[in-house]
Specification:
The chain is mainly alpha-helical. It has one domain. Helices cover about 50% and strands about 10% of the residues. It has 5 helices and 4 strands, in the order ββααααββα. Strand 1 and strand 2 form a beta hairpin. The chain is globular and about 50 Å long. The N and C termini lie far apart (about 40 Å).
Length: about 140
């Protein structure tokens, strides 16, 4: 029996506990790096009542669906986190703005951060375009 690595899509034996390419270790490392960079720097922000309420509003706005997977990859996936379109490190004033948030799955979040390294402006425009499409299709609210 075989399994597929969710990160690199390599097919490998079920008897192996992790992908032979070391994807589990890379994913943990990347996740820890993102956590250390974003979460720890802004721990007070992410623990505030305002952020928790806004995060819940964003989740409901997008009906718990990952917008990136839906429009970019044509797959319906359940989201798991809220992403700041314009990062807090660039503009803290947009930190509590619902229009600066999008709901994503973990895989899409990693993909977007990789794309930010090559062309952040293009990626931001693409995300905003997906939000516009969502508003047209679902009236700005959930399904």
């Amino acid at each position: 029996m075989n399994r597929i690595c969710p990160r690199c899509r390599k097919v490998y034996s079920y008897s192996l506990k992790e992908c032979p390419n070391g994807c589990a270790k890379k994913t943990r490392s990347e996740s820890n790096r993102i956590y250390d960079k974003c979460q720890r720097e802004n721990q007070g922000f992410y623990n505030s009542k305002e952020w928790k309420r806004l995060r819940e509003s964003c989740r409901n706005k997008f009906s718990e669906l990952c917008l990136w997977s839906l429009y970019k990859h044509k797959r319906v996936k359940k989201g798991s986190l809220v992403h700041h379109i314009v990062p807090l490190s660039e503009d803290k004033s947009k930190g509590l703005s619902l229009s600066n948030l999008v709901y994503l799955c973990d895989e899409a979040h990693r993909e977007i951060h990789r794309l930010y390294k090559t062309d952040q402006i293009k990626t931001i425009k693409e995300i905003k375009e997906f939000i516009k499409i969502w508003k047209v299709e679902y009236g700005g609210g959930g399904i």
